[in-house]
Every structure is written in structure tokens, then in C-alpha cells.
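[09:14] KT: can someone run the structure on this one? pasting the chain below
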Amino acid sequence: MSKNNDELFKNVIAHAKEYGFVFQSSEIYDGLSAVYDYGQYGAELKNNIKTYWWKAMVQLNENIVGIDSAIFMHPKIWEASGHVAGFNDPMIDNKDSKKRYRADQLLEDKIAKYEKDGKTAKAEALQTAMDDALKAEDFSRLKELIEEHEIADPVSGTRNWTEVRQFNLMFSTQFGAMAEGSDEVYLRPETAQGIFVNFLNVQKSGRMKIPFGIAQIGKAFRNEVIARQFILRMREFEQMEMQFFIKPGTEMEWFAHWKEARLKWHLALGTSTEKYRFHDHTKLAHYANAATDIEFEFPFGFKEVEGIHSRTDFDLSQHEKYSGKKLRFFDPQETDKEKQSYVPYVIETSIGLDRMFLLTLINAYEEQDLSEGDKKDSRVVLKFPPALAPIKATILPLTKKDGLPEKARDIMDKLKLDFNLQYDEKDSIGKRYRRQDAIGTPFCITVDHQTLEDNTVTIRERDTMIQERVNADDLEKIIGDLVSWKKVLA
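[09:31] RB: done, C-alpha cells below
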């Protein structure tokens, strides 16, 4: 069934709610904008994506270790990192709708429309002009571009805009038992700083030698004014980040290495290479000397999923300056005594877990017409890589009698120690298959009357719907091989 992209995206969002993947947060109270809860299958899928990242990053690299730093951090950390002074977005308000927008995103939407309409030259010219204005922090120029390209408010349809001004994205709160005299602290807007301030702790306690990395998965918080496209842009989100500490002067070599390694990680899930692209930054952050995004083609266009940044020695140098503590690496094998002690450079890989979740959901979603002649039939299937699937297999007794449920439960009890399984005996076997297809379960194991005679069961494969008769005693190995992490990690 062919769908236009808007309809496809709406169907994915509806499917995510109907089948327990993602719910609007606080929905019974009319929800909270740009905040979402992960349902029973969403939580499993999210955990499996985290596991895949952690195994690929920490388990497979002897020189990368993982930590879990606190969300609350000393306020000075955010001064040192530049977030207090410079963590701002250029915002513009429409006077008629009273809605606030990010100026650069309004322009990006216009660029995407030009590209869609085949106006490539216009798109490129606007992209260059916007990049120049952002680099120079020329907010009046951003407003001029919005006016020149006749960008209207999507709500009111008018072009009655305010000036562009900056808006800080950090959430602040009070830290202390009493409201008076308590300190103002921030909910962390990124997880990276928790790694940087623990650089020396990890290096010394783990006897780490340069080059080495510190990985972390954790929540971050940004008061995004523009919250849209489902879970793509949220106020509470999760990051999977790795900071790789290297010798100054080797950063371009390592930058290239991690660009290639991270794209391989994505493609190992079986995604088409055409769905991904690198987008090199023209406007670099103040701390970077090279930066690129790995972008995925969502139904609404290419969007960033992961960033790879060469952060130089900015972060550690800033924390040295603000804390008064030395954050250096001493290399006893360096013969030049002046070069033995140095502040390491850093290559960062940072992936949005929620965006990776959305990517995985969209990539897996498929509507299939299975009609034959006059017999109408269809199914919605989520073709997750088996290692990522929330439920690995479902045990289905053919009927609810004749000892089949007891035999099915016996098989499930043996397998559930190793795999996340489901048991389902309600409705016809066809309806049960469809339910499992809709949540992405790769294998269905049917227990029938023959099972009681010779201990064989039917195993059905989700994508092909092919069924095979196997011995129940072999299921542990069969399922184990089919859903193994080796399939993607190797």
C-alpha cells in the first residue's frame, strides 16, 4: 500500500499509541507539550537500542568505559561550558497567533520546500545566507530573510513578526531544603559535561591511557519552544554519548575514524544506505574545529540523528580554569618532557536515543496487502531486527483445551529465563499472528496436537510468514541464534 509521507507518519504515530509503544505524557490531564511516556513495548525497544549502543561502544572497545553521572551538577559547570551565557536559540514571535518559533527552523522549513519544488538554487542561496547570519549572530538579518522569503506563520497565516531575539533553553530549579537561601541549579541540557568533570576520576581509577573513551546514557532537559514531529524534539529526552580523549594533533584522524564507525553501527541494523547521509557543519560551535551530523531520511525529510564533533581541548581547559583543578594526562613514554603533560583533545559521538527510537519505528513499519483474488487480507508489521524486537517470541497453544495450554506453558517456562516472551491463547491463530506482527515479534511458536505426540512445534517467521516444524527441545538454540546480538555486532 503506497502512502504519502504525511499519512505514513500519522499512521506510525497512531500505531505507536495503539500498540503500547509511546503515549502522550499526562494524557488524562490533556497532556504535557513535547513530553512523552514509553509504553510496555516502547520501553523494551528503547532498552534494546541502549543495549546495542552500549555493547558496540563499551563491550567491543577495550579502551572505552561507561559511567552514569548525576542530572544535578554544580552551577559553575554550566558557566564553564558556556551554557549559562550562550545556550540560546534565535526566537521570533508571530503577533497574531502569539506563537513563538525558532527563526532558523522557519528558514529550514522554507529551504526544504524549495528543494521539494525543485528550486535548488533558491534553497542553496537561502541556506548560505542563513548560515552566514547564524555564524555572525546577526538576528536582524535572520528576520530580513524571513520577510524576503515571505514566510508566514503556519497557525495564523500572517507575516506579522516580532524581532528575532535569544531565548535560554536551560530549566532551572532550587537546590536545598529551604526555598530561601537555596541555590539555583539547572537540569542538565546535555550529558557530556558529566563525563568531562569525571575525566580524572575515571582515568586514574581505571588506569586508562590515551586514547580512551568514556560513554554514558542519560536524560537531558531543554526548554524547547518548538516542540514538534512527535518524539523528534522533546523537552525531556535521552542521549547516548561517548567522549574520546586523544592527543592534540591527532583529532582529524580520530574524527574520520568515528564518522565511519558510527555510520557502520547504524547500517548494521539493515537500513538502506540511501536513508543516511553526512551533513558537515558550516557554522561550528565555539568549542569545535570539525563537526558533522549523521542524518536519516524521515517522512518529513532528512534530520539529524547523531553528531560527531571534534571539541578540541575546550571543555577540559574550561573546567581547569573554573575549578582550579588540573585536568591533564601525564604520558611517561613521551621523551619530550615539555609534552609529557597535556590537556587532551576530545572527539564526541552523541546520538539522541528518542530519535533513534523513532527512526527504528519508522524504518520497521510496513503496511502489506496480502489479498489473493477475491479474498481481501492485509497486515501491519514492524520489521525490527530480531535483536531489537521488544518480544523475541510468542508461545501460542492452538486451542485452550486438550492439554495444549499446559504444554505451551511448560515450553515458555524453559525459554523465558533467556528471552522476553509472550503467551497468547485468545482468538483465532490468524488474529494472534497479526497481533504479534503489529508489535514486531520475530517468531511465533505454535503448540498443537502433534506436539503432544512427538514434542515438535511450528515456528513462524514474521517477515516471510514461513512456518517450519522443529523439536521443542531445540528452541533455546534456534531462538538464541536468530535473536543473537552477534547478528548486528559482528
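[09:33] KT: thanks! The first strand starts at residue 22 and ends at 24.
[09:34] RB: yep, looked fine to me
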